[in-house]
Design brief:
Length: about 230
């Protein structure tokens, strides 16, 4: 059976991802001399800056995180007991990688713009919309993720049963889309509501999916016990 491996073909398909990561480092080198020694790094639920970081952290933290995330996603199938399944959702896996890199790129460019003196309220406005779009994309492709140990909704019950995995990801896909829409709405609301909707979105997409997988697993096991 054909198994996943990092090849020239994979890297060629990931060319846009690689170029996006490279562009982040180029922007970092170009902007570094023009940035102040302290850069806004975190905003509280009121939309106020509550932590500043060094110029080094502001310029290099997100590009390095993105690079390591991509490399992790590139090679992690090698240690997955169900490595061969990655071939079955290769295109979806590529879209997931690309979506994550695009979101991190947007966050990075906003950080640089704010550091250079741009509007301080860009983060509270744009981040929820960006994350919301990511959730909608993930939600649409989630039902096509095949059984594995690292990508998707991984609970003891989805990992133990293929049917639970399949139905939970279909259910979770709907929840992720709904959560994404809620997050996009928060981009047009006061910062406090960003926080409220974020918690609600996490509950919808995460907690309910976990609970659903548990209930579904118990239901399937109980049916088996009847025979």
């Amino acid at each position: 059976m054909k198994s996943y491996k990092v090849s020239r073909e994979i890297l060629r398909k990931d060319l846009i991802i690689i170029l996006l990561i490279l562009l982040m480092f180029i922007i970092g080198f170009v902007s570094y001399p023009f940035l102040p020694e302290k850069i806004p790094m975190h905003w509280n639920f009121k939309g106020e800056i509550d932590r500043y970081g060094s110029k080094f952290e502001g310029v290099w933290a997100i590009p390095l995180l993105t690079l390591f995330l991509y490399l992790g996603l590139l090679f992690i199938p090698y240690i997955d007991p169900e490595r061969e399944n990655y071939i079955k959702f290769e295109k979806v896996y590529q879209i997931i990688k690309l979506s994550l890199v695009i979101v991190l790129s947007i966050l990075y460019y906003i950080t640089i713009i704010v550091g250079l003196g741009g509007p301080k309220d860009l983060i509270p406005k744009i981040v929820p919309i960006t994350i919301g779009i990511l959730f909608i994309i993930l939600g649409n492709y989630m039902p096509r993720i095949k059984h594995n140990w690292f990508v998707g909704i991984r609970t003891p019950w989805t990992l133990s049963n293929e049917e639970v995995w399949r139905k939970t990801h279909r259910f979770g896909g709907y929840l992720f889309v709904i959560s994404g829409i809620l997050m996009i709405i928060t981009g047009f609301l006061p910062p406090y509501w960003n926080f409220v909707f974020l918690i609600l979105s996490v509950f919808l997409s995460g907690v309910l999916s976990i609970f659903y997988s548990f209930i579904l697993y118990k239901r399937i096991e109980n049916k088996k016990g009847e025979f």
